[in-house]
């Protein structure tokens, strides 16, 4: 494997794997003469041993970012590096990256084997035996060896998508770019493909950048989750970090199901004590939280509390009516209403019994986050 001189820092390319590190520096891409800012100031590094997932709502710039990495779009500003090489304006074919889309596009008149070998025929001068070996090894890893002589029309959606991945794998790319590759598959098959692609990543040691708007898919796949909104990165972290320590209100609400409860309160300061109040309750902050909070008396802040941290108790912070119970298997989502406040609790199955009764509701301030009016995290 011919790797160039590598930077001596810790982010240098993995020597064992054949993948390369991808780096985006201040990447910006606009459309319509700058009127649509699809990606703005994106800074990101994905090492060859990392599985990165770009996650965010529709239109947040995931595909645009991926297309810039692939070379299908050229950014307006910033830099893209693959390994030590700057490829910002290089043609897609000169980047040696594999792109797998949601829409599967296999050649219908070719067998699986021919589809998988096609790129090798076009772009390499490997011998016939070398090509066959690559195709067969990749097919083996993807569990499609017995399908090599079939035509795409005779395959299921999941099998076709495996062939698409195999077609990319044989090229031994520097990294894989996958844009919602499993979103057209049914739920069971999608689960199975997720497990397989993650295993494949561990075996290949090649960077993967995977786009999805599905948080569950992102959490189960990603080592590094990149949350985007409005063309900007909101947070980069492990699945645990983004779940436990969201940096802003957007991330807190976007991650987790049911979504985090957001409860507006007014800060009341008296004799060094801080209370967060609204029409429904008054919550005293523990001393260390009160000390850390910079907000002024009378300022509006938002408490973020995960439904899993809301507890039904006899004497709680406030009384609420149970308006709806949605069974989730081992858990129930319970909808609670008190005055103007509507919140959701995720409770053990059967913990509260019937709709249209009341319960005490409690949560601990230590289990809550506090956000300012600009959505940034205060505590
Ligand atoms: N070729 C284009 N011309 C004009 N605007 C574009 C173009 N491609 C994307 N956009 C706009 O850029 C923004 C980001 O689009 P992008 O396709 O990257 O979003 P996405 O996060 O992939 O969304 P989705 O989850 O719906 O696929 C959107 O506002 C979109 O309308
Ligand atoms: Mg997209």
Q: Any overview of this molecule?
A:
With 379 residues, the protein is α+β, with helices and mostly antiparallel strands. It folds into two domains: 22-253, P-loop containing nucleotide triphosphate hydrolases (Rossmann fold, 3-Layer(aba) Sandwich), CATH 3.40.50.300; 260-371, Beta Barrel (OB fold (Dihydrolipoamide Acetyltransferase, E2P)), CATH 2.40.50. It contains nine helices and 20 strands. The longest helix has 18 residues, at 187-204. The radius of gyration is 25 Å and the shape is elongated. Magnesium ion binds at residues 62-63. The site of magnesium ion (MG) has 2 residues, from α1.
List keywords for this structure.
379 residues, alpha+beta, Rossmann fold, OB fold (Dihydrolipoamide Acetyltransferase, E2P), five-stranded antiparallel beta sheet, 9 helices, 20 strands, elongated, disordered N terminus, binds adenosine-5'-triphosphate, binds magnesium ion
Q: How many separate domains?
A: 2
Average residue pLDDT = 92
CATH fold-level assignment of the largest domain: Rossmann fold
Please summarize the sheet with the most strands.
6 strands, mixed
- What is the string of helix and strand elements? EEEHEEEHHHEHEHEEHHEEEHEEEEEEE
Bound molecules: adenosine-5'-triphosphate, magnesium ion
Q: Do you know the CATH architecture of the largest domain?
A: 3-Layer(aba) Sandwich
Q: Which strand-content bin applies to the residues?
A: 25-35%
By helix and strand content, what is the structural category? alpha+beta
Distance between the termini: 49 Å
Low-confidence stretches: 1-17
Our Rg estimate from Cα atoms comes to 25 Å
Which CATH class of the largest domain? Alpha Beta
Helix count, per DSSP? 9
């Amino acid at each position: 494997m011919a790797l160039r001189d590598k930077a001596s820092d810790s982010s240098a390319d993995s020597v064992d794997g054949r993948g390369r590190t991808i780096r985006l520096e201040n990447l910006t891409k606009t459309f319509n003469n700058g009127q649509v800012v699809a990606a703005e100031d994106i800074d990101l590094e994905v090492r060859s041993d990392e599985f990165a997932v770009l996650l965010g709502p529709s239109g947040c710039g995931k595909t645009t970012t991926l297309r810039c990495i692939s070379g299908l779009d050229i950014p307006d500003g910033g830099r893209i590096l693959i390994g030590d090489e700057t490829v910002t304006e290089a043609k897609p074919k000169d980047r040696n990256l594999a792109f797998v889309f949601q829409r599967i596009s296999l050649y219908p008149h070719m067998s699986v084997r021919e589809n998988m070998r096609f790129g090798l025929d076009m772009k390499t001068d490997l011998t016939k035996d070398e090509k066959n070996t690559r195709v067969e090894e990749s097919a083996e890893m993807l569990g499609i060896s017995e399908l090599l002589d079939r035509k795409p029309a005779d395959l299921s959606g999941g099998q076709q998508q495996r062939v698409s991945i195999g077609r990319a794998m044989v090229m031994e790319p520097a990294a894989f770019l996958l844009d919602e590759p499993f979103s057209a598959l049914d739920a069971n098959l999608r689960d199975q493909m997720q497990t397989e692609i993650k295993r494949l990543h561990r075996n290949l040691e090649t960077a993967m950048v995977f786009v999805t708007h599905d948080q569950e898919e992102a959490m189960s796949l990603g080592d590094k989750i990149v949350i985007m909104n409005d063309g900007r990165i909101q947070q980069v972290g492990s699945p645990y970090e983004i779940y436990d320590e969201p940096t802003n209100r957007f991330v807190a609400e976007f991650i987790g199901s049911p979504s985090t409860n957001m409860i507006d309160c007014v800060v009341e300061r008296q004799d060094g004590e801080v209370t967060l109040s609204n029409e429904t309750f008054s919550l005293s902050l523990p001393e260390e939280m009160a000390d850390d909070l910079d907000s002024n008396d009378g300022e509006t802040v938002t408490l973020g509390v995960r439904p899993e941290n809301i507890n039904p108790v006899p004497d709680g912070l406030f009384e609420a009516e149970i308006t709806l119970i949605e069974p989730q298997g081992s858990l129930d989502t319970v909808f609670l209403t008190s005055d103007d406040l509507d919140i959701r609790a995720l409770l053990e199955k059967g913990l509260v019994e019937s709709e249209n009764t009341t319960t005490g509701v409690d949560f601990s301030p230590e289990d809550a986050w506090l956000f300012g009016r600009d959505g940034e995290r205060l505590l």
